[in-house]
Amino acid sequence: MLKYLQGYGPASAQDFMCWSGLLADEAKKAAGDILFELAQVHVQPFEKNLWILKTDLKKLERIDAEEKTLPYLLPRFDPLLLGHKNRLRTIEPAFQKQVYRKAGDVAASVLINGRVAGTWNYKKTKRKITIFMNPFERIDKESLIDLKRLANDIGTFMKAEQVELFLDQVSM
């Protein structure tokens, strides 16, 4: 459980059981073995407290919740999207089916301020990469600038000479 919480905390016992495949008794034993290293925190919108490592709690307390974070383009099946049973921490229920698709497919996702704000994919030819983003809601100018930079970084990584970024205007 220690390694799980290092990567996915704060989290619930149910999150850990879902991720690990352990049964409730096994999960309780794992938590009991490291109980002295754990703290409980209340995170909105969860009704019950979640577990976090005490060392991570100190880091969490220093974070300014109002400060914007950089956007990310998460790949398909990113661990952030798979590490919790309850997905409310990262995505609105109305958009979950667009990310968590049939047959266990998990879409590449646009993350803005720690929340899934859309999906993305790409098409690559020999010299060009075209990145398509389907935002769920309007994207602010600052985030859009950062997303364009990320698209260019992907183009550089994939050795594309040209990078194009298309946003689904219907969602805008």
Write the layout of secondary structure elements.
Elements (H helix, E strand, L loop, with lengths): L1 H7 L4 H8 L3 H10 L4 E4 L8 E4 H8 L10 E3 L4 H4 L13 H4 L9 E4 L2 E10 L3 E8 L5 H17 L4 E6 L5
Parallel strand pairs: 6-7
Antiparallel strand pairs: 1-2, 3-4, 4-5, 5-6
End-to-end gap: 41 Å
Q: Count all strands and give the number.
A: 7
**Average pLDDT value?**
89
The global form is elongated
The run of helices and strands is: HHHEEHEHHEEEHE
Structurally, the number of domains stands at 2
Question: Which range best describes the helical content: under 10%, 10-25%, 25-40%, 40-55%, 55-70% or over 70%?
Answer: 25-40%
Please identify the structural class as seen in this structure.
alpha+beta
* Rg over CA atoms: 18 Å
Main β-sheet, in a few words?
Answer: 5 strands, mixed
Uncertain segments:
none
| Strand residues, percent | 15-25%
| Number of helices, where a helix is a run of at least 4 consecutive DSSP H or I residues | 7
Order of strands across the widest beta sheet? 3-4-5-6-7
